[in-house]
Structures are given as C-alpha cells and as structure tokens.
Amino acid sequence: MGKTHNSKSASADGSSTAVVRPFGWRDKIGYMCGDFGTDFMFVFAGTWFMIFYTKVMGIPGTIVGTLFLLARVLDAVMDVTVGVVVDRSKDHPGGKFRVTMMRFTAPLVILSFLMYQTFAIDAAMWVKIVYMSVTYVVWCFFYSCVNIPFGSLASTISAEADDRTSLSTMRSMGGTIGGLILGIVAPIVIYQKVDGHQVIRGGDGTHIFAIVAAVVSIAAFIGYLICYFNVTERVHPDPDQNAKEGEKRSPVHMIANAFSSRSMLGIVAAALCLLVAQLFSNQLMTYVYTDVFGSAALASISGLLGTAVMFLVVPFVKPLTRRFGRKSICAFASALGAVSMLLLFVIQTRSGIVFLVGAVFMYFALMGFNLVIWAMITDVIDDIEVTRDTREEATCFSCYSFARKIGQAVAGELAGLSLDWVGYQSGATAVQSAATKTALYNVATLVPGVFFLLTFVCLVIIYPLSRDRVLYNVEVLRVKRKGITGEEARLLVKYEGITPTGTAPEGSTIEWPDFHELERARELSARTGIAIRDPQAEASTHIEQ
C-alpha cells in the first residue's frame, strides 16, 4: 500500500518536513463540497437535459436517448483511459489527484453552461442535433477528467476504514444537498401553471434553462475550490511498489487486472443496475409528477423528502456497517427499492400523495446504498491490493466509473425510447393524453423496480466482500505498511488468527501450517512488532496447566 504521512518525516538531507494536518472535519467538509459540485452538474444534466432538448428544442426523445447511449459508452472508455493516465503520472507536492482535478474544472463548468443555449432553436434539426451532441460529448470528456481524480481522492485522504466510511457518507451528503436544491428550486423556477397545465416558463424560445445552468455552473466551481483548498492527500503512492512486487504493467494489463477481480466485477454489475434504476427514475419522475399528477410542487416535495430521508439515515450508517457490513446494508436497500417500485406498479395509484409515499421508500433504498458505495470502492481497491499485490486507485475507480457511465447510457436510452413508446408529445406547452399518462406511469415504476431487483441479485451472488473479509483486508494492509511484502503481511495476519471469514476466538483450535512457515512468522513478528498467536506456545501453556 502507499505510505501514510501524518507526522514529521525526514527529507533526503536529514531535515524535517512540515507536519501533515491530521484527518478531520476540514477534509470531510471539503470532500463533501467537491461532490456537491460534481452532482450539482450531474443531477441537473441527468434530470433536465432531456427535458430541455425534447420540450424546448423540439428534438425527438429517441435521438436524445441515443445520444445518451453513444456518449456514455464513449465516456466510459474515456474514464478508464483517464484512470490509467492518472495512475501512471508522477506524484505532485500538492497531491496528484486534487491537482489534476482542478486543472480541468474551469472548462467543465463552462461546457455545463453552454449545453443549455437556445440560439439555434429556429435552425434546422440537424444543426440542433449537432450542437447538442458536440457540447454534451465534450462536457462528458471534461467530466471524466475531473471526476476520476476526485473519486480517487478518497483512498488517499486516509487509510483508516472508519475515516473512509465518513468520507463516503459526507460525499453522498454533498451530492444529496445539490440534488435537494435542484429538486426543490428547479421545478418551481422552470415550470409555471397555465390554464391548469404545467408548462415551461417563458414558453417557446425560453432562456430559463440557460439562467439556471449558469447558477449551477458557478456553484459547482465554488464547490471544487472548497474541496481543493481543504482536502489533504496523506496516502502517497510508493513509486517502487510495482517494481518490488511485479513488473510494471501496461495500460491493458492494469485494466485487465482490475476487471479480473471478483470484487470489482460484483460492484460493477451492482452499480450498473442501480444507476439504471436511479437515473431512469430521475429522468421520468419529473414527467410523472407534472404530466400524470399535474403538479410541479410534488416534484419539489419529492426532492425535499429525499434529503430528509438522507438525514434520517446518516446517523445509523456507521453503527449498521460495523454490525452488518456494507454489503448487507446495500443488499437490503436494493430489495427495499425493488419492493417499493414494483408495488407502485401493481396498485396503479392515481393519487400523487400515495405515489410520493412509495417514492420515499425508494429514497430509503437509494440512501442506504449511496451513503456507503464510495467506501465500497475503497474496499475493492484494498481487496485487489491484498489479492494481487498491486494498488492503482485511479484505474480501479475508473473501472467502477465505467460501469456507472454504461448504466447512465442504458438509463438515458431507455428513457428516450420510453417517451416515444408511450407517445409523449414534445413542446413547451404540450398536453398529454390519458393513454400516454397511464403508459408513462407504468414504465416509470416497472423499469426501476426490475433493476433494483437485479442490483440485489448482483450483490448477493457476485460481490464477495462481506464484513469479515473487509476487516481481514484492512488488517493485512495495516501490517503491510510496516514495510513488508504482501505475502509476508498475509502470513502474519494468518498467525494473528484473522481470516477472510472472521477472527478465530481465543482458545479455539486453528489449523496451523508447517513449522518452517511458523518460524518465518515468528521472525516477521519480531521485526514488525506485530503480535501473533503461536500454536506451539499455546500448546505448551495448555500442557502445563
């Protein structure tokens, strides 16, 4: 694992370097603000991009959905490429990941504003499609250049498991706060009621989306600045690690190494399914509230309740994950999401309040998953280091991001196809038929329900990192940081009585290896100061008693 710096260290000439600030609330708030900036743009694009181009610009939903699909597939490839490039780049005195993040922040927020311009509203359809496609694809590229180093920061801010859980929770809170602001304010600002129907404020040719996008971009930039100036990278990569534990790998080998891990495959499959459920729901919920139930206020209330659920769940995250493990929490949450959405599909309610109650249970499912998912990524990074003796944070995070982008692509394509399939009429002042409203309700509940169920299956069957295995990995890496190899660390932890299936209780009979291995463990114990359970000494004590 990388080296953790929390105190004075000697430089090459023997002098002392500056003390590194201990991990604390400044890091948590900074990282939370970084995700606020990320999700402020991401949620705005995920919720309003399709609405802008279908209702305001008049582009068919199928074309917008196809753009989502193609752009996200390309974006997924860019994510992995960026991850490899960042991992292979040299460390920086200010921190490799946070410096890389800020280099691309300005062009990202500028593109986030340019995507919602209406100057081409009267141009030919192909002109509007080209402008939409170019700005969106370029925005996706810069999003990868910012999001991959930002996501990789979590494993370098602290090496402690509890600290990482805190960072995951704070990151999710930052994104949720951004989503709350958009969920409450955006529908009220963008929509207005005319003759009993919800329509886009300003009608055809409206500039309301450009105004909101400008506010979102500025707020996101401020969030990234707060993150940059308040987060400290303490776990720096060892430049000789790969040379010590294996030949330096090619980019293809680095990617293959990550994807060949069962823990990575499990989290990738679960994340893909969850993102389809979440983003498909996000994209269609506004349509459901405004067109089926005829109330933009319900969309705002829904966003407010989603944040309220987050604050209800946050105090229980640490104790629950310590007791049951992150895998169990996420599996339960996914099952809850599946039940809530499939139940709404079955009962076919026409009451906006009843639908809102069902959505609240879905929010519990999303919060249960999203509050710990970022810590699960660091669990996967740790697991790959324990099992493969390699540590490449950005590559691993980019592989996870690859799955997220594929999930976004599938969700966007499904949403666009669904709008055309239900016969949705585009236009800022268009009113939908009763048949369209019914079909819209059905797809908005059934599709997320099915993908929540698939998320549950992926976690239970594929993802292997139970609570005990995570604790085992943490201990192996703690021992490894004493300056020994991964193989030696695994041997010492084995003699501590800690295994991937749990810690053997004191006094229990453990199947120990041969004498030569025991001798090696004794030597390592003396060198590192790590206490081990010596079976021969325990046996002698038992005989004397």
Using the 3D structure, state the CATH architecture of the largest domain.
Answer: Up-down Bundle
The whole-angstrom Rg is: 25 Å
Distance between the termini: 42 Å
Task: Output the helix-strand order.
Answer: EHHHHHHHEEHEHHHHHHHHHHEEHH
CATH superfamily of the largest domain: MFS general substrate transporter like domains
Overall strand count: 6
Helix run count: 20
Oligomer: single chain
Kindly estimate the percentage of residues that lie in beta strands according to DSSP. under 5%
CATH class of the largest domain: Mainly Alpha
Q: Classify the fold: give the CATH topology of the largest domain.
A: Growth Hormone, Chain: A
The helix/strand class is: mainly alpha
| Spatial strand order of the main sheet | 1-4
Pfam family, one: MFS_2
GO cellular component, one term: plasma membrane
GO molecular function: symporter activity
Protein name: MFS transporter
Overview of the molecule:
The chain has helices at 25-56, 61-88, 96-103, 105-114, 125-152, 154-157, 161-190, 208-230, 241-245, 251-259, 262-292, 296-324, 326-347, 352-388, 393-421, 434-461, 467-480, 486-496, 515-528, 535-544, and strands at 3-4, 191-194, 197-200, 235-236, 498-499, 502-503. The chain is mostly helical. The longest helix is centred in the last third of the chain and has 37 residues, at 352-388. The radius of gyration is 25 Å and the shape is globular. The protein starts with a strand and ends with a helix.
